[in-house]
Design brief:
12 strands; globular; about 290 residues; single chain; alpha/beta; seven-stranded parallel β-sheet
Length: about 290
Amino acid sequence: MDEALTGYAAAAASEHAWMVRRFIVPASRIADLAAAYAGSAPLPLSVILDAPNDALGWFEATRLRLATTQEALAADPRLRLAALEIPLPALRTLRDTYDGAIGQYAALASASGVRDVPAYLEPFRDARWRDALPATMTVLARHRLGAKVRCGGATADAVPSPEELAAFIRAAVAVGVPFKATAGLHHPVRRVDPATGFAMHGFLNIIAASLAAREDDPGMAIEAALGEEDPRAFRFDEEAVAWRDRRYDVAAIEAMRRAAFVGYGSCSVQEPVADLTAMGLLGEAPA
């Protein structure tokens, strides 16, 4: 916790502070955070209600995590709740959907006074995940909730394919569900990680794919954008962002950032900054 807080403080005080918003913390660690935080400035938090992945006990565990969070916030006015992240449990049977769990969370949020706090619910990714996305996004839209997608992990099977990630983006954009991403997005452009040997997604790829989805680009543009591995394919100027022959102006970018890809969580700020600088998109590229 001390290391994480030190890194966050350094990033928030740097010239790249505009990249940094919330300190992400699991609800199970919020007491540790309150004890470790030595600053006087308000600390905006995105709290993960990290209940166990148990469909039968999920709601009660989530309720207790939220109660623990609210108790810690009430005891320490420096801690500010800015967003909530809610992992959903695996579906138990082939007939189950996420309608019930999403509705339960919406009711809990209303009863707990956090209904206006942006919340991003993360469907459990398994063999049914992709097929369930359209119905899940429709329910999230009905309850005015956001979605969350996990883009990486410690094993190759934890990384969704470009086609799976494209299905998530399409389903979210189709019904106007804002979403955030997490895990494996330290680098701007899709690449093979030399340490693990498997491909990892890039955050510029997700930006381009989300713009393509909102602009109704035809064909396989979303999958192609997510699969792009050439940094030279991405170009930025004062008026637009371009990916290959597609160009999106500032108004399109702003609309996408409000209603689609709102941001991503990362344990590193230095790596994105270093890579963007090397690409010539941020500051001066090294000689």
